[in-house]
Please model this.
Amino acid sequence: MADVNGYFWRVNPYTLAVDVAFDEVVYEAWESKDCTGAAHLNLAGDSVPLPLFTFKLYKSGELRVVKTTAKIKTLQVCSHNWTAAACGLNSACPSPRTAIALADTAALTSASKPDLSTYVAPLHPEVP
Model:
C-alpha cells in the first residue's frame, strides 16, 4: 500500500496491521573504527531497501525511507552495528562500499505508519 507521501507499507488484509514494506534487517555503518561520527546506510549486500519502501533501522527501530533523490557515496566501512554488541569492528577496513549518509535529509526521511483505524472500505471491492 502507498500512503499519501507515496511511501510503500505492508498491510495485513485481515487485521489492517501496518508494517514496513522492506522487512529485512537494515544496519548502520561508520567510517570510524568505533561507531562514531556520521552514520551511513550501507548499500552493500542483500539488505538494501528500494527507494520509497519503508524500512526500520536495526538498533534504533526508527522508520525511514530512501528518497528517489538519494545521492550515493563510496566509503570505507570500518565499524557497524551488524552484531548484538554495541559496535562491531572490521579488523581491516574492507574495500570501499556504497552508502547513503543517514543525516542526509535529501536522501532519507523519517516515516510514520499510516492510521487505518477508521478504514471501512471493502478490502476486495471486486468480490460481490
